[in-house]
Structures are given as structure tokens and as C-alpha cells.
């Protein structure tokens, strides 16, 4: 029996994930071990994630994650303290986000670098009264509260990029587009050179496209793209935009892959505006569960779940039935 960690988290994650896990367990025998890592616990105890919890999670090959975030907690505390920390500590450097329409007319996979770029949390405030030069621009701070300078540093490491592109090119089997903003941000020169170097080694043809142009062209002609490889920030934005092409964030699952561990989650977040109202679309969470099964080698079971989601979508179930009823259907079909 395989043990998988389950983190329902916050909001609609707590509504959806226990049922998804129960259904998956019923057809595979997978044992889900639940971790109470949530905003609710943080509000009550001040604990975001315990060090011993983090060490225990490293022992699981796979984690099924619901969502994190609560309007009662300042934005960024739980997101950075839980999901971004898990990505860093477990070295989940590859983020896979499929953008697929149920008629297969759109079939894009976005491969997003997952631990560096502008998500490294190297940030702060430059306090006091001072002046300095940045790339020829003189910056004056008068020391008043309305004249503080906030900064966030992006960072890319050749060693991690090399590992990322090796993994990305092992996944791609056709048209590959690498995106960035190398024309405006100098650190993406390393991104481009590492991509090109690795593509030559792998004998893979790639093309480059600036992120803003890609976003424009992706809306006009999504069939142009099969694999998009993106740095962390732009990959996050482009994949959400891609979800809008195929029905919305309710149909957007994702996988966070490392060399030893993997975490699977819906893209949509905790959706506090509809949490507790039995109206959340569970499709993305179910599809994330399917990706987990594929990763663990349960390919037939993964296909069964994907076929079930497709049938429910075609029959309009996701738009017409309550969350609890859809989960009941899911559990009945998978038994």
C-alpha cells in the first residue's frame, strides 16, 4: 500500500479534497495521511507549518494539496509560509500545468520553473534617509513613511536551471516555445543561454518568444502552442490565462515535481468567496488527483478518472450540480 500525504488546507480545499482522496483510495488502496496545515490553525495557534511536519512530508513520495489562503490572514503569509516553502524545501523545481480543452482542440502543457525567479522571497525595505545610484539612476529617500523603497530581487541559478531544462526537455515531444522577458530583464539572458545549451545537447528544436507577445498570440491562436517553458512569475500568469481558454480555473490542475517528492494541487486557490456554499467546481482537484495517480504509476486508474471528468463536463454536471453531489457521483463512479 502506498502512503500519500493529504493537505486539504483552506476554503474549498477542505470541502473537496477529503472526498477526492476517499474516491482515489477506493480504487487504488492508497492510504492518505491528513496534515492539518491551514489558516484556521494559524489563526488559533500562530503556527504556519511545523519543522517536524516539513521533515515528515519529505518522507512521502507524493502530496495531494487542496488550497491555502484566508481573508482573515494578511496576503502572502500562508502562501509563502506553506506552498512556496514546500516547493523550496522539497526542491519541487518543475511545475507542470496542463491547459487542455475537453474536445482536444487546445492541448498545451506549460512547464514552469518553480523555485527561483521573483518567487525567492529576497525582499525588504530600504529605510531612513539616503541616496544611491542604481544602474545610472539616482534614487533619493527622504526618510518619511511615504517615501519608503520596497524591493524584491529575482534570482536564477545556472545549476538549478540546468536541472530544470533537462527535466523539461525530457517531457516535451513536439513543438517547444521558451518564453521570458530577456529584452527587459537582464537575468533572463542566463535563462535563454541555458535553454539553448540544453536543447542543443538534447537535439531538440526550440523557439523563443517574449512573454507579452506569447500572451497575445496564445489568445489569438492557442493551437500554435504545444509546450511552453516559462520562468516562475510568467509561468504563473500565463497558465492562469490558459485556463480561461478551456473553461476557467475550475479545470486547471497542476503538478510540482522534484527528484524525490511531488505535490499535486488545483490552481484555483481557496476561493473564500464561495467556500462553505457547496458551489465550488471540484474538477481541478479531481484532475490533480489523476495527475498524482499517473505519477505513482496508476495509469489505468488515472485514465478512468480523466474519462469520468470528461463525461461529467460534456453532460453539464459541473455547471448544474452542487459540489457535494458531484463528489458523490465521483465516489460512486470510482467504486
From TrEMBL:
Q: Which SUPFAM superfamilies match?
A: Isocitrate/Isopropylmalate dehydrogenase-like
Q: Which Gene3D superfamilies match?
A: Isopropylmalate Dehydrogenase
Ordered alphabetically, the record's keywords are: Manganese, Metal-binding, NAD, Oxidoreductase
Please provide, alphabetically and separated by semicolons, the GO molecular function terms listed in this UniProt record: metal ion binding; oxidoreductase activity
The residue ranges crossing the membrane are: none
Tell me which InterPro entries the record gives: ICDH/IPMDH, IsoPropMal-DH-like_dom
Give the required cofactors.
Answer: Mg(2+); Mn(2+)
Q: Which residues belong to any copy of the Isopropylmalate dehydrogenase-like domain?
A: 3-330
Q: Which domain of life is it from?
A: Archaea
Q: What Pfam families does the record point to?
A: Iso_dh
Protein known as: 3-isopropylmalate dehydrogenase
UniProt source species: Picrophilus torridus (strain ATCC 700027 / DSM 9790 / JCM 10055 / NBRC 100828 / KAW 2/3)
Amino acid at each position: 500500500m502506498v502512503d500519500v500525504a493529504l493537505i486539504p488546507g483552506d476554503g474549498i480545499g477542505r470541502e473537496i479534497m477529503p472526498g477526492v482522496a476517499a474516491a482515489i483510495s477506493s480504487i487504488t488502496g492508497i492510504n492518505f495521511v491528513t496534515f492539518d496545515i491551514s489558516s484556521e490553525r494559524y489563526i488559533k495557534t500562530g503556527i504556519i507549518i511545523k519543522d517536524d511536519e516539513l521533515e515528515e512530508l519529505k518522507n512521502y513520495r507524493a502530496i495531494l494539496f487542496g488550497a491555502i489562503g484566508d481573508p482573515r490572514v494578511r496576503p502572502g503569509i500562508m502562501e509563502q509560509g506553506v506552498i512556496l516553502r514546500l516547493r523550496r524545501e522539497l526542491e519541487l523545481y518543475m511545475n507542470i500545468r496542463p491547459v487542455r480543452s475537453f474536445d482536444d482542440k487546445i492541448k498545451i502543457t506549460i512547464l514552469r520553473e518553480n523555485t527561483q525567479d521573483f518567487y525567492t522571497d529576497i525582499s525588504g525595505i530600504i529605510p531612513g534617509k539616503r541616496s544611491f545610484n542604481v544602474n545610472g539612476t539616482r534614487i533619493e529617500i527622504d526618510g518619511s513613511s511615504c517615501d519608503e523603497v520596497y524591493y524584491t530581487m529575482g534570482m536564477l541559478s545556472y545549476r538549478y536551471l540546468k536541472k530544470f531544462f533537462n527535466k523539461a526537455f525530457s517531457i516535451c515531444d513536439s513543438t517547444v516555445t521558451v518564453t521570458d522577458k530577456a529584452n527587459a530583464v537582464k537575468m533572463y539572458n542566463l535563462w535563454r543561454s541555458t535553454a539553448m545549451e540544453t536543447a542543443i545537447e538534447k537535439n531538440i528544436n526550440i523557439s523563443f518568444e517574449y512573454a507579452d507577445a506569447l500572451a497575445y498570440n496564445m489568445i489569438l491562436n492557442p493551437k500554435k502552442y504545444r509546450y511552453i517553458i516559462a520562468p516562475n512569475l510568467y509561468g504563473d500568469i500565463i497558465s492562469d490565462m490558459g485556463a480561461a481558454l478551456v473553461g476557467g480555473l475550475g479545470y486547471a490542475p497542476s503538478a510540482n515535481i522534484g527528484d524525490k517528492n511531488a505535490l499535486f494541487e488545483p490552481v484555483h486557490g481557496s476561493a473564500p468567496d464561495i467556500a462553505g456554499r457547496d458551489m465550488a467546481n471540484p474538477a481541478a482537484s479531481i484532475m490533480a488527483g489523476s495527475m498524482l495517480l499517473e505519477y505513482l504509476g496508476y495509469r489505468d486508474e488515472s485514465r478512468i478518472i480523466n474519462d469520468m471528468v470528461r463525461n461529467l463536463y460534456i453532460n453539464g454536471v459541473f455547471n448544474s450540480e452542487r459540489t457535494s453531489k458531484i463528489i458523490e457521483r465521483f465516489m460512486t463512479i470510482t467504486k
